[in-house]
Design goal:
The complex is a heterodimer of chains A (about 180) and B (about 290). In chain A, about 25% of the residues lie in helices and about 25% in strands. With about 180 residues, chain A is an alpha/beta fold. Chain A has a five-stranded mixed beta barrel with strand order 2-3-4-5-7. In chain A, strand 2 (about 25-30), helix 2 and strand 3 form a beta-alpha-beta unit. The radius of gyration of chain A is 16 Å and the shape is globular. Chain A starts with a strand and ends with a helix. The relative contact order of chain A is 0.23. Chain B is α/β, with parallel strands linked by helices. Chain B folds into two domains: about 1-20 and about 65-150, 2-Layer Sandwich (Dihydrodipicolinate Reductase, domain 2); about 150-280. In chain B, about 35% of the residues lie in helices and about 25% in strands. In chain B, the strands form three sheets. Chain B has a four-stranded mixed β-sheet with strand order 4-2-5-10. In chain B, helix 1 (about 5-20) runs parallel beside helix 4 and helix 2 runs antiparallel to helix 3 (about 40-60). The chains are: A alpha/beta (about 180), B alpha/beta (about 290). Chains A and B meet through helix 5 and helix 6 of A and helix 3 of B.
């Protein structure tokens, strides 16, 4: 279990050195998107239109934050469950997405896309939303403001703490961790 | 007839929502501290440490513990000898919910089932809440509230077993629900189990079971033993905190049965499992 500090956009080299279980502190720009925004992003790709941000090397954070209080960049901002984005993730990975942050299991198609196109799925601690918000220094809605908490935001982060769940080699932290501790 | 003012109910609900979504309850805090002490996996211990730190920050800054501030769920007991003045009790709960979520900078998480549109400006901010009313003797109004997140709700299940399945069948069902859920509902969990009544009422009881403070025994000794047995068996699944592998998957199992007498139909054995994440935000007031 290694520890890394990485800055976005991520390269093939960055993600290739990561293994399931590694701790990573992310820095730089992340983009937030959930179900509704994913559907729109994929529709844009399929119709050949331009996306609201560059997917190359990008990291998407699955989050729908609480509204910020006056003077705060963002409210509480923990990860949401990722499987709901499974139908959309492979095509985004194919178009350059290098990282996803959420919580919970991914399906086989996402894991295969991670291997084939070199991308990783990171887990953040669900329910640690006030703590995670401390790592977010700036936030700006860049698309779909009508979606409210589900709008696409560009966020600037410093040492955003995540763990590698699915790496580029087909490993899965949830399966490995459970196998280690399961009593038959 | 005792009188309770509409505006007092609105304010009490507003305050309860803002407080309990930012302050982890003492029973939950204690349960997480114990899980941290007992957890054998280093990764899961690190997660639990983050959760305890999160609770400290949330409390200090009155910042929501989790961004999913939930559907608002209420169990309301209305005394037969109490009257609300200035409006209806239901309207007061709606208004208090809207005020609490808006003024507490909490997330409006309700949407149209089909269009998925957030209707906060037409239907209301995080409205409607789910409310279960009951009429009881006395002149008080007792309101229990929980902010129920979507991730743990999504993995909850209900079934009607054949009577022959018995206690073993119930145990197998609970184990299957928690095992299939794995990391998704944000373990360590509180597992609410409703047994008996009808198909729908078992689910209601499984939700109400989540309101009981962790560490308080089940008043039925047989069910108390079953709760402890289930907890031990569920912790053998190895899921751990946030599913990263570990020994502390479940903080408590709480069982409710259809009273009096743990009843159901002679042909049925309804069982429901309502999963609660580690951010169990539950509270109650009496007016």
């Amino acid at each position: 279990m290694a520890e890394y500090r990485l800055t976005t956009p991520l390269s093939d080299e960055d993600v290739s050195k990561l293994k399931a279980g590694d701790i990573v502190y992310l820095n730089g720009t992340l983009y937030t998107a959930r179900d509704a925004a994913h559907k729109r992003l994929v529709d844009l790709i399929l119709s050949g239109e331009e996306l609201p941000f560059d997917l190359k090397g990008a990291v998407i954070y699955y989050v729908g934050p609480t509204p910020p209080k006056p003077g705060e960049p963002i409210g509480s901002a923990g990860p949401t469950t990722s499987y709901r984005m499974d139908p959309y993730a492979p095509i985004l990975i194919e178009h350059g997405l290098k990282g996803m942050i959420g919580k919970g299991k991914r399906n086989q198609a996402v894991r295969e896309a991670c291997q084939k196109h070199k991308a990783v799925y990171f887990g953040a601690v669900g329910g640690a939303a006030a703590l995670i918000a401390k790592a977010i220094k700036k936030a700006e809605v860049i698309a779909y403001p009508e979606l409210g908490p589900e709008a696409v935001r560009r966020i600037e982060v410093e040492d955003f703490p995540v763990v590698v769940v699915n790496d580029t080699y087909g490993n899965d932290l949830y399966e490995e961790g459970r196998k280690l501790w399961e009593e038959k | 007839m005792r009188v309770v003012k509409y505006d007092d109910i609105v304010k009490a609900i507003r305050d309860m929502i803002i407080y309990s979504t930012t302050h982890l309850s003492p029973d939950m805090k204690k349960a997480l501290e114990e899980a941290y002490e007992n957890e054998k996996s280093e990764v899961s211990r690190a997660v639990l440490a983050q959760l305890l730190e999160n609770a400290v920050i949330a409390e200090k800054e009155w910042k929501p513990l989790c961004q999913d501030t939930g559907l608002a769920i209420y169990f309301v007991k209305v005394g037969e000898d109490v009257k609300v003045e200035g409006g209806s009790l239901k309207d007061a709960i709606y208004e208090g919910t809207e005020k609490g979520y808006k003024e507490g900078y909490l997330r409006a998480s309700t949407c149209d089932c089909f269009t998925r549109a957030n209707l906060k400006d037409t239907v209301g901010y995080n409205l409607p809440p789910v409310i279960y009313f009951d009429i009881v003797p006395g002149d008080k109004i007792e309101i229990e509230y929980a902010a129920k997140g979507g991730g743990s709700e999504n993995v909850s299940r209900a079934t009607v077993l054949a009577p022959a399945a018995g206690k073993e069948g119930i145990k197998e069902f609970v184990k299957k629900v928690v095992s299939d859920a794995g990391p998704n509902p944000c373990p360590p969990l509180v597992v609410g189990v409703g047994i008996g009544g009808s198909f729908d009422y078992a689910a209601v009881m499984s939700k109400h079971a989540l309101f009981r403070d962790i560490g308080t025994p089940n008043p039925d000794p047989e069910l108390d033993a079953l709760e402890k047995e289930l907890k031990e068996e569920l912790n053998k699944l190895g899921i751990g905190a946030m599913g990263m592998g570990g020994t502390e998957t479940v903080l408590a199992v709480h069982i409710e049965t259809f009273q009096p007498g743990r009843m159901c139909h002679i042909a049925s054995l309804p069982v429901a499992v309502n999963i609660q994440c580690h951010s169990s935000r539950h509270s109650h007031i009496t007016l």
